UniProtKB/TrEMBL annotation, chains A, B, C, D:
Name the UniProt record assigns to this protein: Aldo/keto reductase
Domain NADP-dependent oxidoreductase, residue spans: 16-320
Record family assignment: Belongs to the shaker potassium channel beta subunit family.
Keyword Oxidoreductase: yes
Assigned keywords, A-Z: NADP, Oxidoreductase
KW ATP-binding (keyword) present: no
Source organism of the structure: Roseateles violae
Domain of life: Bacteria
Amino acid sequence: MQYRRLGRSGLKVSELSLGSWVTYHNQVDTTAATEMLAAAFDAGVNFFDNAEVYALGESEVVMGQAFKALKWPRLNYVVSTKFFWGLERDGNTTNRKDTLNRKYLMQAIDGSLQRMQLDFIDLVYCHRPDPHTPIEETVHAMSDMITQGKALYWGTSEWSAADIRAAWEIADKHHLHKPLMEQPQYHLFHRTRVEQEYARLYEDIGLGLTTWSPLASGLLTGKYRSGIPAGSRGALESMSWMREQLQDPARNAAVAELEKIAAELGGNVAQLAIAWANRNPRVSTVILGASKLAQLQDNLGALALTPKLTPEVLERIDALTKPLAK
Amino acid sequence: MQYRRLGRSGLKVSELSLGSWVTYHNQVDTTAATEMLAAAFDAGVNFFDNAEVYALGESEVVMGQAFKALKWPRLNYVVSTKFFWGLERDGNTTNRKDTLNRKYLMQAIDGSLQRMQLDFIDLVYCHRPDPHTPIEETVHAMSDMITQGKALYWGTSEWSAADIRAAWEIADKHHLHKPLMEQPQYHLFHRTRVEQEYARLYEDIGLGLTTWSPLASGLLTGKYRSGIPAGSRGALESMSWMREQLQDPARNAAVAELEKIAAELGGNVAQLAIAWANRNPRVSTVILGASKLAQLQDNLGALALTPKLTPEVLERIDALTKPLAK
Amino acid sequence: MQYRRLGRSGLKVSELSLGSWVTYHNQVDTTAATEMLAAAFDAGVNFFDNAEVYALGESEVVMGQAFKALKWPRLNYVVSTKFFWGLERDGNTTNRKDTLNRKYLMQAIDGSLQRMQLDFIDLVYCHRPDPHTPIEETVHAMSDMITQGKALYWGTSEWSAADIRAAWEIADKHHLHKPLMEQPQYHLFHRTRVEQEYARLYEDIGLGLTTWSPLASGLLTGKYRSGIPAGSRGALESMSWMREQLQDPARNAAVAELEKIAAELGGNVAQLAIAWANRNPRVSTVILGASKLAQLQDNLGALALTPKLTPEVLERIDALTKPLAK
Amino acid sequence: MQYRRLGRSGLKVSELSLGSWVTYHNQVDTTAATEMLAAAFDAGVNFFDNAEVYALGESEVVMGQAFKALKWPRLNYVVSTKFFWGLERDGNTTNRKDTLNRKYLMQAIDGSLQRMQLDFIDLVYCHRPDPHTPIEETVHAMSDMITQGKALYWGTSEWSAADIRAAWEIADKHHLHKPLMEQPQYHLFHRTRVEQEYARLYEDIGLGLTTWSPLASGLLTGKYRSGIPAGSRGALESMSWMREQLQDPARNAAVAELEKIAAELGGNVAQLAIAWANRNPRVSTVILGASKLAQLQDNLGALALTPKLTPEVLERIDALTKPLAK
């Protein structure tokens, strides 16, 4: 496992990291989570990604219990959370949902710290942009979390390049803590934002990337090539919105070809997809998701494939996927 | 009930809100206050307005007890207080009354938090301008309340446009928290400040408005058309200063005509007056005052009238009231 | 008693105030101090001046005990302390004496708060200039006391106009709390600094003055006209350095003439001298010192003389004293 | 003992000070450390240098226990620590070692405070430059330690002039606490950085110097002239990397000549070397290291030699050492 600076920061994150989206509490209990965190940590993973909204707070509770059981020194791991959607799905959700206003953010960080049983969270993200809150209000609140010692660094997730730059400039003008990293979707079929939209930000403001969905929600494992298998993420009721996309014929055909390339290199298609995201030097860490220990261990096999992605191999991969990517 | 951004901020307040001026402690005890807060909340009201000076602190005590009884999640409601007049009416009141100096403000916020039994107050206002304190001193103190986590946003009440802009510019220069909202009197007979004096501030600094006295202290209910009824606000000893104004013949005659328009639209004149204030897109929320539950529920009926205020109806209302307004 | 803004600030101080220099602990115990504080407070005095060095901390202890006994609401009085000389007179006094460095200042404020049993001190002063500490270091430390809530306003004592302006400019540049007031010696025989050196600062930065020694250490009471009376301040061993000055023949002769003017106006020379300092509109408050209640009450009689200081009277006073003043 | 301002700051440090590098915990236990601290303090030393990495935290523990036993008033001594290498030597040391990132620094200061049993540490240093962390991130974290009251002043150790200036400019731009002092190696055979590279910084930013290794790890005591004596620092396993340098023939020959000069002046070569460093007015304090009380007392004898370093003597010393120095 290699470690990379998170953007221009001095914080180093493992090239592969472990997220809890979808899986925790829903598919993974504290015992299983602890087992997987331990395995990842032993393999060199030092960054564990979370969010307030994952399982509506329960994902933070599970991860917090696992940290407590594992007793790692606090300097040895980096943990994140993200704010935007809130925890409430019913009743009057004004100021509790889909917002980055000061009221919500200042209460949200306290809730996350309590659920995770931590004194501070390393990375806090604005989980989505909020067009109804001025960027200055959000920047001030995120920076205040750092000043108050509740967080160390802050960033965004799925923000436009223009909004990220605006946030950075506002922080610079008012001498606040600047946004450091962005968490975008990034995989073989979703590349434009990372490769084009953000291009100037890497140099200009030192933006780091913690990318999610390297396997395109499982499409890049090949398991959706013949429909939705029972027990898969695509079979979850809450994930029904992505079923059509998972069964896209052209993409699944491309996956079949990628499987061959992976086999040539001595791996499988999931490992190839992860290695492909990991080979981008702008990516600080590729966040893996896993509902089973075996799956995590298989995914970590991507490390062996990364150095095999020669320019020639990358060209073959691009020919198959770029025309189908956005 | 609709929710509007408080000025340019990301905080959303209900278009109608509930204040405790005059009524709490004087006419309304904790039980009645709790009942009215609950009814307002159930109707969608999320902003509850208060001030240190209302019933000399007792209004904050009553509202705090009501919040405690109601057990709403803290994210679900927005509460305010205001500082200027202090709590003392006798003895040497230097630095305790009619001031916005640092000494008074830093002690006032602590007193309000204690009386309300809250960890923070969402909105804190400078209740009036203080020509004897530099705006910079006041801006620094109000901003410090936010930095210390005791408040979330700050604003002014009945300040001139020039002073509001000065406060905003000073905060911007020194990287402090900027004033966000103003609480002006605004009703059919009091319109100049909101409609003309503040005109540039809405765009330039994103000023929000939480308006008070939509019924002109009851004049716009029509109940003062034949004198001061016993038990009305105008009959309170402390309100004697406004009795003459409440019985102004020309205005009461206009009210009689407004009653007819209200009846045409299927409401009463109070509902019409509230709906009229509410229809102004510069107004973030119209603060209602009520001493009885029935009155509150009647006033909330204004929501049904708001969409009926067509340009034609508004023209008729203007013709009746604009010449009598300041 | 009238109240004046402390410089351009919104804080109001009584035109006459009470200091504890020399007297507390040395000549005045807690019981007597409490009695005099109560009498001054009843007469309208709201500012009580102190310093760490007065009786090496004991003056703060005595005043703190008096406050505790008197139970005044905290908003009703303004209290000060000052830092520079430290509390230690023997051993290695590096960084503990004659300094305004950060190390000393940050520890000094904590000591004063503890001795006075207060949560915050209204006014904190740099008791003298320190040419061996950069003004920026001192400004940052004084401002930090305010940010931390341990003090409300800060100022200087016996600083040059150039240093005061430098401190103000540094605070403005770095967005820190600015110095507000200066405590200079000011009496009929010591006028240049207040009347000439600081002239531009009143308008340019809104400097306020809390002046000390209105009676020129007793010279202006007339009691040193025939030598040093036993029991007087001049008889204290620690005050021996000023004995010669107290017996200056020309000045004592002028005092004899002033006594006649005072008698014409219905007062005594001490009252005249205090009234003279008080009549300067640049002076926010004249700090009185008293070792006995009767003396304090006599001095407060100056209030009656102030309005009698007509231009004609002031001219006569100037003719007598200006040639002998520095 | 004389006291000098630490650079342009108002903090005064003794010209000779005592460090705990190498010796504490390894060669010196708490009893011996307490004895040496007491002797140094009695001789006028007021600065005691430490670092997190010295004996991996144990040096801080030992010094903290000694302080506790000695019960000096906190204003009477200045204590330092330094951060960079971390405490861990095995396992995954990402973010725990060789870093000045925010995550490490914010945890490191808390650890040092706990080990030293202190409320604040006077001087905190970045123990080495970290090319993998932006200077802005480090400046913000170091300044935050001061804002939080955990430290009073911050500086660097073995940083380039360019990096020190960059840190100062960033702090000035963002109104943060500026770096004040640098801790460079400085002795007769290591002079370029102090005498040439930093030359402009003394005037431009008021940089102070706390220099280490005045005896070139013992070379300048003459004791390595005939090999590595048992029990010497050079005989420690952890110091094996410097053995070759300690036995450099040309330098040891120069030491033999220096011994003669020292003898002429009535001292020994170690005292001469310390006096030579001390005579540089850019040096705020020369940090001595000692594993035995007798050695410390001998080194303090350098004070008597300093005034004897006339221009003529300095020329003779330069002629012997400058050609061999870097």
